[in-house]
């Protein structure tokens, strides 16, 4: 059998008990079908003591019934034990009553058996009815409902049955009239059951649960006992004129110690009344007066015991409710603490995420104002958190993109959309544009209105710049490809016109020169290149000539257009020199020089120590490149002379031609 929890010392009552008090434990029932010998002996001893106590009470002449506790002992055992064991207790109670008849009452056996049957009928009927209502077996009274059921069936119905049968037997025997015996019998049985049944239940429960009182409780119980004894002595000696005061100590005991206190106080009051009743025979009272006095005292016990039991039941229910409430409160506090801890942990995670996120996060109110801004978003716009919070988000949005906010707001409010994404421009504190990929989620009130928005902004400025560069490069490649193809077309057309006999070889050489220019430009990412690198790049196609070429001039950086024109010119000069000029023998040399004077760029090519030079008989494409194309590309003047000592080529153009004139593309 599973035990219930121990009660707290000062409550002497409820505490945390098992909630199985209203029902039977199957295993417990099975184990008590056959009581052991010790239980039977203890029960028989208690039953005989109850018989002796009832006999000891003052006897009304010719009616040997005053207070009858034995029925209360039997009813308590039937309520505590499973029905399978009832025959043992009923049989032992019958044996005890027959034994008492032999010792004290000396009734004829047939009538004694009739009295036994009358008492057993009342108790068994009450036990069967209470078994259904209380879901017996029970271990204790646990509620006011149980107490009221016991009072109705055990105290009212059971004595009525036994009194009816017993009074009928008395009438048959010829002792007393039915109407004379019945009220005395009923009152004696009711009082006995009311005293004995709760007392036995309480004593057995205390023994099983080992719920021994503390020293403080013993002292308080002793104080109640002394008060009750003194009050009883005073009240009874004053002809019970103040009998209404006697239930007060019982109520006190019930309030402090529940059923233990109430049953103990009732037992003490019963002993006091019994002792007082012994004095009736010495008083000059008639039989009717003694009977009336006995009835009054039994009624006093009945009222006091009933009051005590009801107060004890209410006290137990109240303490049980307090205990359940305390347990529920503990559970609730534990759940609240757990939930609070979880919320605090979630809040810490949110704050850590919000603070350390690698993207900008902001909480925006339903009116479009920034409520919270994280560090990344603040840093993204180069502003302080205090400067941003409390202001509208469109104040930090590029004017041209504010219409996007209005369109998105319409989707949220009118269309019921809860999230969207867009790319728009924000304004940095220094006025620069910050591109952001913005993802927005909407949190709404129960009525559907916007509570706040969660905006996550990823800085995509570099991506946008890369896209702008790619677009620029695409346009530049397209532009340069067209220019290059145009140059190739001119070279092909002019080479075919002037060198039809050696077209492939000549065209190939000029394409190589053009390719050399392209290599240098690509290597410098189509940015400005050094004039020295350009010259060396064109001369490297000719073997062992660099040691005979002397370069002189300041560092000059050429834009792509100028580099392409000068590269082609140097290639033509080097080709002619290798074929006919100073680089065609072993002693010739070339001097290439450049300078910047008075806002103009000057460059010259002079050949020395080569074979004698004569002007060509016809003008070929090389001459066109050296004179017309270079002059046109450089917006300058070109001179070409064929002196006998060597060819001289000179260029003069504005310095502004050397500046990069490539159109710039605005950051989109």
From TrEMBL:
Residues 420-472 form the PAC domain. It catalyses: ATP + protein L-histidine = ADP + protein N-phospho-L-histidine. Keywords: ATP-binding, Cell membrane, Chromophore, Flavoprotein, FMN, Kinase, Membrane, Nucleotide-binding, Phosphoprotein, Photoreceptor protein, Receptor, Repeat, Sensory transduction, Transferase, Transmembrane, Transmembrane helix, Virulence. The chain crosses the membrane at residues 38-57, 86-104, 110-134, 141-164, 184-204, 216-236, 297-315. CDD domains: PAS (cd00130). Its EC number is 2.7.13.3. It comes from the Bacteria. InterPro entries: HATPase_C_sf, MASE1, PAC, PAS, PAS-assoc_C, PAS-like_dom_sf, Sig_transdc_His_kinase_HWE. Gene3D superfamilies: Histidine kinase-like ATPase, C-terminal domain, PAS domain. Pfam families: HWE_HK, MASE1, PAS_9. Residues 346-416 form the PAS domain. The keyword Kinase applies. It is an enzyme of class 2 (transferase). It is found in: Cell membrane. The keyword Transcription does not apply. PANTHER family: HISTIDINE KINASE, TWO-COMPONENT SYSTEM SENSOR PROTEIN. This is histidine kinase. It comes from Sulfitobacter aestuarii. The lineage of its organism: Bacteria, Pseudomonadati, Pseudomonadota, Alphaproteobacteria, Rhodobacterales.
